[in-house]
Amino acid sequence: MYEEYQIEIPKSFMALYMDPGRAKPNAPRDVVAARYELCEDLATILTETAKNMFFSLGITEKEVLERCYLGLTGEGAVVTEREAGWVISRLDELLDWRNL
């Protein structure tokens, strides 16, 4: 088995690459896997940033997530808007905030 096929991509992420009415993703598996790894890494990295924002700025969890989303979709973005939405949902999940 090739290494790239050992990465389990969640259905929620795979859905970003599914066109309505289609059973297969609109990008090759290696591309989707690479994008998933990037997005998962971003969500993991953002956990500390989000916690710091929450405690130091005195804003709500939802406001933290909104600011993180704006940062992910701003100038020089490395992810698409849909991927940024997934990253924020995953960040919310990792922090166990349950805002989304």
Give the topology.
Layout lengths: L10 H4 L14 H29 L3 H13 L7 H15 L5
Share of residues in strands = under 5%
The 3D shape can be described as elongated
What's the number of domains? 1
- How far the N terminus sits from the C terminus, by CA atoms, comes to 36 Å
Helix residue percentage: 55-70%
Instruction: Give the mean pLDDT.
Output: 92
Weakly predicted, low-confidence segments = none
Class by alpha and beta content: mainly alpha
Helix count, DSSP H or I runs of 4 or more residues? 4
| Main sheet attributes: strand count, strand direction, barrel closure | none
Q: Rounded to an integer, what's the Rg over CA atoms?
A: 15 Å
Order of helices and strands: HHHH
How many extended strands? 0
